Amino acid sequence: MTSLLLNGKQLCQELNISTAMLYKLRKAGMPYHQLPHGRPYYTLDEAQNWLISAGYHQEKTWAK
User: Fold this and answer.
1) 5-63: what fold?
2) Does residue 13 have a pLDDT over 50?
């Protein structure tokens, strides 16, 4: 099974979060992939699984 890689803007749109929230989630340990000197990329499944395991829930937006 392959997952599409999303950049930060695409992930924010998929999760319905702001970029500020994305940076807070990354600082809290949300997984991402990055090549040397490149942008971070995310898989939607990994991000959603991490959010659930970290105690976040989604109604309209992700919140704790």
Assistant:
1) Multidrug-efflux Transporter Regulator; Chain: A; Domain 2 (1.10.1660)
2) yes
